[in-house]
Write a structure and sequence with these properties.
single chain, mainly alpha, disordered N terminus
Length: 254
């Protein structure tokens, strides 16, 4: 039997080692995705199904992105300090998260990220862009998830093994649902996750801007997109100021 302190063999060790190195850079896949997405818009600005299908593609992308943001907010808003869902610069896990979103999937934040950026890709109207986005996140996050799970197994042993046995890694399942003992805090979620909200707003606006230029409309945004960007930027500045200058978005024990 392999103990928590035993080295993982072969490819498992190599992939988890890559994941450990990639952990600090896990916020950067969206940069690659945006380059690919905007390149797709420049090469082929007309959505699949024709220009008349553009609104449907945009609506589908907004729904996917909203689902990703909601999942991220719910996950962040129901975990306490010192848990496996709160590491930013390095892996840490004083307590293993196994309830709430973490009872549906072992990596709900990454599920949320994948939905968010698949939504951005969908606004291009290109099935290929959506597929490439999913593949980028799969290849990148798969390694990070392996590294995180190796760390959690070394830290929590049998508790991690029992949780992993009943909870899927990525595709959520309701079979093992267990409510979080921590009530959801919108204030705390906003304080932690407002950059993701603005990233979605900015990315979808960039797609609209580049499409307009690529189809001969110039570098101008229609009024609805201007309002969308202005609302997102205003929310970002306000929440950033509250986060940095006050304690309004802090919650005791989180």
């Amino acid at each position: 039997m392999t103990s928590p302190d035993s080295p993982a063999p072969g490819l498992v060790s190599e992939l988890s080692g890559q994941g450990a190195r990639l952990f600090r850079w896990r916020s950067y896949p969206p940069v690659l995705v945006m380059a690919l997405v905007l390149g797709q818009v420049v090469v082929d600005p007309v959505p699949a199904g024709g220009a008349e299908a553009g609104s449907a593609w945009t609506a589908a992308g907004m729904v996917l992105g909203a689902l990703g943001l909601v999942l991220r907010a719910w996950t962040v808003g129901t975990v306490p300090a010192g848990t496996s869902g709160r590491g930013t610069k390095e892996q840490r896990s004083e307590t293993l998260n196994t309830t709430g979103a973490y009872s549906l999937a072992r990596h709900p934040l990454y599920v949320g990220n994948a939905l968010l950026w698949a939504g951005v890709a969908a606004t291009t109207g290109s099935p290929g862009a959506v597929l490439v986005t999913v593949l980028v996140f799969w290849l990148y996050y798969e390694r990070i998830m392996m590294a995180e799970e190796r760390f959690l197994f070394e830290r929590h042993g049998d508790a991690f093994s029992a949780w992993a046995a009943r909870t899927p890694a990525f595709v959520p399942s309701l079979a093992g649902w267990a409510p979080s003992p921590w009530p959801f805090s919108l204030r705390f979620a906003l304080g932690r996750d407002y950059p993701a909200l603005f990233a979605f707003v900015a990315a979808t606006t960039a797609v609209a801007l580049v499409r307009g230029a690529a189809t001969g409309g110039g570098w101008r945004l229609p009024l609805p997109w201007l309002a969308w960007l202005a609302a997102g930027a205003t929310a970002y500045v306000a929440l950033h100021a509250l986060k940095r200058l006050t304690r309004a978005l802090e919650v005791e024990g989180r």
